[in-house]
Specification:
alpha/beta, Rossmann fold, Arc Repressor Mutant, subunit A, 9 helices, elongated, single chain, 4-stranded antiparallel beta sheet, 2 domains
Length: about 230
């Protein structure tokens, strides 16, 4: 029987989640602040944690930061905030999933099952391998989504594929021919297709496309994603 930790300063929410998780066959441990949750994770064989974002004392963000120093279990963050920036902060500090309040308890149980299945059958690293960051540029390769400064950016499938290739290889320069080969599985054509896609991507993700922070041109070589997302003319 998998052991689930539920941490929220709202006792009624904790008790409600406990009922649904126990009905689904899980053993539930309850905590009402981050410090209590950390002690339970250290002392018990917890397989997944459900953590509220806003708690007095030690909030959910700090709790996730602390547990990630010694623990790789999946974490589902609960939040009353639905802004993309709050979601990205949670993912960046180490949460694996999020759900906003008010939520359907059956949806939460479904997410628990999904995260546990991936963690127990595929391993801990596979859950987190789909998040790639470069400063304030983030892609969630599982959801095929891009965020910049916490704002969801809509990309075409081809734009996403190019950006994903570069994000997964931060700091590595890809020539136009290499991008063709990786994305189109083609040896490369001497036209401006790549340049056009790059321009469109920059127009969507850069504050100033002429002075890009993320997607850089290395003259005479190709394109790359800056490791930290620093400004530099290219």
């Amino acid at each position: 029987m998998e052991k689930i930790l539920v941490c929220d300063d709202d006792i009624e929410i904790v008790d409600s989640i406990e009922i649904y998780l126990e009905d689904a066959g899980y053993m539930v441990y309850k905590a009402f602040d981050g410090f209590e949750a950390l002690q339970l994770i250290k002392s018990e064989d917890i397989q997944l944690a459900i953590v509220d974002n806003m708690m007095p004392g030690m909030d959910g963000i700090r709790l996730v930061r602390e547990l990630r120093k010694f623990c790789s279990i999946p974490v589902i963050m609960l939040s009353a905030k639905s802004e993309d920036s709050d979601i990205i902060i949670g993912l960046n500090v180490g949460a694996d999933d999020y759900i906003t309040k008010p939520f359907n308890p059956l949806e939460l149980v479904a997410r628990v099952k999904s995260n546990l299945r991936r963690y127990l059958t595929l391993g801990a690293e596979s859950i987190r391998d789909n998040i790639f960051t470069a400063g304030d540029l983030v892609i969630d390769d599982g959801a095929k989504q891009c965020f910049v400064f916490g704002v969801h950016i809509k990309l075409t499938p081809m734009e996403y594929n190019i950006l994903s290739l570069l994000m997964k290889n931060k700091g590595k320069v890809f020539s136009i021919e290499q991008i063709y080969q990786k994305i189109w599985h083609d040896d490369g054509r001497l036209d401006n297709t790549i340049a056009v896609h790059i321009r469109h991507i920059r127009e969507k993700i850069e504050i100033n496309p002429k002075n890009p922070q993320f997607l850089k041109l290395v003259w005479g070589v190709g394109y790359m994603i800056d490791n930290e997302g620093n400004y530099a003319k290219s």
